[in-house]
Amino acid sequence: MEAPGGLWIALTVWAAFAQTLRNTVQRSLTASLGTLGATLVRFLYGLPFALAWLACVHLWRAEPVPALGWAFLGWVTLGAVAQIAGTAFLLLAMEARSFALGVAYSKTELLQIAVFGLAFLGDPVTLPVALAVACGTLGVLLLSPADPRRPFAALLTGLTTRPALLGLASGAGFAFAAVGYRGAALALDGSFLMRAATALAAAQFIQTFLLGGWLLWKTPRVVADTLHLWRPSLFAGLMGAAASAGWFSAFALQPASHVRTLGLIELVFSYAVSRKLFRESLSWLELAGMAFLAAGIAVITLSG
Predict the structure, then answer these.
(1) Cα 167 from Cα 220, distance rounded (Å)
(2) What is the pLDDT of residue 99?
(3) Which residues of 248-267 are buried (b: 16+ CB within 10 A; e: fewer)?
(4) What span, in angstroms and rounded, lies between the C-alpha atoms of 304 and 301?
(5) CB-based burial of residue 2 (10 Å sphere; 0-12 exposed, 13-18 middle, 19+ buried)?
(6) What distance in Å separates the CA atoms of residue 297 and residue 304, rounded to the nearest whole number?
(7) What is the CB-side half-sphere exposure of residue 136 using CA atoms within 13 A?
(8) Contacts (Cβ under 8 Å, ≥6 apart) of 234
């Protein structure tokens, strides 16, 4: 199945929009389930929808599920574990004394994706892509500065602190996850839809098994609570699976650096929702961040 050249753009925008909805629901569940419980929801309740999507692709295209070789299993396991690790490091960074610094450093994910994609998959980093990644990273850092009064000085002076290192580790985790998922899709035969659906189902199964098993061992009450709150969790799982379907399909078509840079449009959606609901105005720093964000999105879209 040949995909239209610009299809990855539509898939990425859809993924970012669905992820915004999922995050909104997850935030409402965090108060009852805690951060890890709300994280489990996206995997546990997303898994049935991921399997349903795989079945739909199989029936619609009359295409067999591809054989799962060792290369695929290695890449998808790397992606699944790295995503959980990235979340864990981010939580540790947020618990640290200077949590804002850790969160800011976690936003270097885009830069790390470009480096890891080139090193492990041979995805090229052209000048337009490098420019888009730099603009996107700068925009995100301005939108979530460690210190609004001196955003860049705080990054430089805090480079060797524990929160900064945890933030960098979190960014690396999410970067390896994106590269791992693209590697998994490339390791399979078949159409891009079948490769994406297979990779998503496998990743969601691994994550449900690992995080669910760990929570059952450590805090079984959290798992019981996620089952009790099945109604709101079901919608979160649906939106999580819908978002992941878009991400994985886009990863099957384009380098991870392209996809994740364009995916920053999620922040535009979030700010639009925030302004609509809370009628908040943007500071000059946030306006500058949005400008760089828009520039990065525009460059990666035109170059793709």
Answers:
(1) 28
(2) 55
(3) bbbbbbbbbbbbbbbbbbbb
(4) 5
(5) exposed
(6) 11
(7) 32
(8) 45
Q: Can you tell me the distance from the alpha carbon of 182 to that of 75, in angstroms, rounded to the nearest whole number?
A: 8
Reported as a single tens digit per residue, the pLDDT across 260-278 is 999 888 877 776 666 655 5
d(CA 163, CA 105): 8
Task: Note whether 110 and 170 are within 8 A (CB).
Answer: no
Higher pLDDT, 289 or 14: 14
**Residue 48 amino acid letter:** P
Query: Residues near 152 by Cβ (< 8 Å), separated by ≥ 6?
Result: none
Residue 243 phi, psi dihedral angles, 5° rounding? -65, -45
User: How many CB atoms are located within 10 Å of the residue 34 CB?
Assistant: 16
The string of pLDDT tens digits covering residues 84-99 is: 998 888 777 766 655 5
Quote the tokens at residue 169. 């580790």
Where in the chain are the domains? 7-303
Average pLDDT over residues 2-11: 77
Q: Rounded to whole angstroms, how far apart are CA atoms 104 and 154? A: 10
Give the pLDDT confidence of 185-221 residue by residue, as tens digits. Answer: 999 999 999 999 999 999 999 999 999 999 999 999 9
Return d(Cα 192, Cα 249) in angstroms, integer.
6
